[in-house]
Each structure stands twice: as structure tokens, then as C-alpha cells.
Amino acid sequence: MVRRKIPGSRGGGRNRYEVGYCKPPTHSQFRPGQSGNPAGRRKGVRNFMTDVKRTLAMPVKVKEGGRTRKKSTQESALMLLREKALQGDQRALDRLLELGVRFNNDEAESGLTQALPANDQAILAAFVAEFAADAMTSATAKSPDDLTSTLGPSSDKKAPK
Predict the structure, then answer these.
(1) Tally of structural domains, the chain
(2) Model pTM?
(3) DSSP string of 128-141, one letter each residue
């Protein structure tokens, strides 16, 4: 392998700088403190999620009952999916039902709640038992007899300071 010296590489003498793969000439390297992208990101550049939301919100003209109406792209796509499902398209029906299960799951409205796993139920039962035991011991400790014994006999004398 022949080592060659690139003009302007500033590698002379015994500290030779070898130019090669991942070793650019020193004259073309970034200087300390210099950014590799000095202009930075262009202002107003949107990310993909913003573009998707904007596209789905864009109005589209839809014929409905002989009249032309403006609806969002998202709503129009859902209406089209519904129509295909009602016509018997199995894939459209599966997707529509999946969306229904995913977004129509109001637990308070349906009255259905998920059962807790057995280990979670055991943790809750142990907590309730511990809480009940603490409540029982604190209730027996604070009976009226215990309160007078902790306060001492009642007397009209003032306590020494």
C-alpha cells in the first residue's frame, strides 16, 4: 500500500497524518466549535404526525342523499369503510369492528370491568387485611379508659413549667 500525502493535509515530519477511509484531510475537517449543520433545520418543517393529522382533517366533498356536503377526509374514509362493510366486504367489516372495539370501550357505560389477575387480588386482599388489623388495634388503644390513663388523673393544678 502506497502512502501518499495530500497537499494541505498538514501532516509533515514524524506526526504524519494518514488520509484514508474515515480520515479526511485536515483542511476539510470541521473546526472545533463549528457545527456540521450550521443552517439547522428549516423553519416550518413539519413532522409526519402533523402531516397525517392535517391530511385527515382536510375537507372533501361527499354526495350524501343527493346533496353535496363537505366532510373531513377521516370521516369520509370511515363512511366508505362502513358502506363496504355493509355490502359484505369481510376485510372492511373486520377493520370496522376492530375500530369499534378499540374506540368504543366506555367501561362505565358498558358495565363490564376486567377481572384482576390472581396475584393482584392477593396483594389487595393482604392490604385490606393489614388495614383492618391496624384499624382494630388503634380503636382498642384509644378507648376512654386508655385516654385517662395516658393523660393522668384529672386535677385542677397546673402542670409545672
Answers:
(1) 1
(2) 0.41
(3) HHHHHHHHHHHHHH
